[in-house]
Give the backbone structure.
Amino acid sequence: MGVLLIVLGLACAGLVSDFLVENHLTTASTEPFGLMGGIVHLSVPAVALIAFGLGVFTMLLLIAGSRLGRRRRLVRRDLKRRVSYLESENAMLREEPPDTTGGMTPGAWVAEQVKAARVER
């Protein structure tokens, strides 16, 4: 679909450039028309060129806006994933670890482990 739109855009650009070349942008007769309360004297090729330029500018703004929106969604999704991971890790760390010392104080447990290591040698 993207390639089709690129080809269509190139065809439109070729059509506008052909129109401008055939109608001699600089020597075409000017015609008055009203625009925002004023009268403007422009030739038909100049009006076509301005319209084409505004269309290109509009498309660039639309593309930039869609890319910014897509990037914002991806960042938000990544942050949600990270928050859920940190919440699960926090919940896991808050759980009380199983008692592996058998009710002994930490110092007594370490002393017993050292004795067991000496016996195994």
The chain has a mean pLDDT of 78. The CA atoms of residues 28 and 43 lie 6 Å apart. The two ends are 73 Å apart (CA to CA).
